[in-house]
Predict the 3D structure of the following.
Amino acid sequence: MQTSDGNSTAIEKYFSENKRRESSSRLNFFSMTLIDGKLVADKLKNEIAESVKTRLANGKKQPHLAAVLVGNDGGSLTYVGHKVKACEQVGFKSTLLHFEDGATEEFILNEVQKLNANDDVDGFIVQLPLPKHIDADKVLLAIDPAKDVDGFHPVNVGKLTLGLETYISATPLGITKLLEHYNIETSGKEVVVIGRSNIVGRPASILLSNQAKTGNATVTLCHSRTKDLKEKTLRADIIIAALGKPEFLTADMVKEGAVVIDVGTTRVPDATKKSGFTLKGDVKFNEVSQKCYAITPVPGGVGPMTVVSLLLNTLKAVEQSGR
Ligand code: NAP
């Protein structure tokens, strides 16, 4: 097994969880690269922290990220917590606006307008999903595109589609940063993205097909109505699995030497865990990893990169504001 920086956290974790692997499987496993999202995210966080120090030394403003959270969904609380912690790590100011599940749409829209008008806030996110009585599209449309560091506003999605400079949504941006770090060429490659959500699959497909450094791929965007999915994934040099179905992608769907990026994070009940659940990816890691050139683990792959990409977008926001 190779890692480009010799870091072992995700790798050690992998081995501790897979002590009983057969020796023949190990031989294959050792020729595979485990893409270590935590390692790359930590490296980027250090670079962001340096930029913040330089900004402050030059009398410039401390970057400030705000997050709006409505309700008490366990996953959302965890994700927002990670974002707040990451802000602290790099020296950003962060503000969490946490409202009760019953907060009205009008109230949330008003909070968005206040954040748009607040010069101290450089960028903000509205954590999804929102409770059913709030129209998420309406809320996302109300965000000032200049502060939309999640890159979900149609103005920013449109710019991405045209290949213009913009805030790229955090998970697809994180995926391209991982591919860059591990020198995984995308130009001319066959990429299959499974899942067409507005926050992951679709922007990832646009980004990788754009005329850009980590782009120029021939991308097939698959979804629940796709026929003969296996025939498509078997052709792919790079597979991005983002459908939210635990262990959906199996070894028989992947060609030898493919790169597999697992975006999925589903909480599967697990009585042996203190939390009561295990986080499962969309890829059957133990068998798919035997065939791959490189693969991301879950956790420790795409997840940390999503958080750090949000920080990168916030840094971009404060720089563009000139403050
Ligand atoms: P989503 O909005 O639920 O979309 C799922 C997509 O998968 C849809 O386009 C759906 O097709 C497609 N799909 C469902 N079943 C399929 C099947 N059997 N074959 C092919 N396509 C299928 O999901 P999302 O928000 O993009 O999230 C996907 C996963 O990534 C989830 O597990 C989520 O928790 C995780 N996630 C992780 C991160 C991270 O940082 N690691 C960030 C965001 C999301 P239709 O459009 O036809 O319904």
Notes: The pocket of NAP is lined by residues 171, 194-197, 199-201, 222-226, 229, 242-245, 263-266, 302-303, 306 (CB under 6 Å). The domain at 169-303 is CATH 3.40.50.720 (Rossmann fold). The CA atoms of residues 237 and 258 lie 5 Å apart.
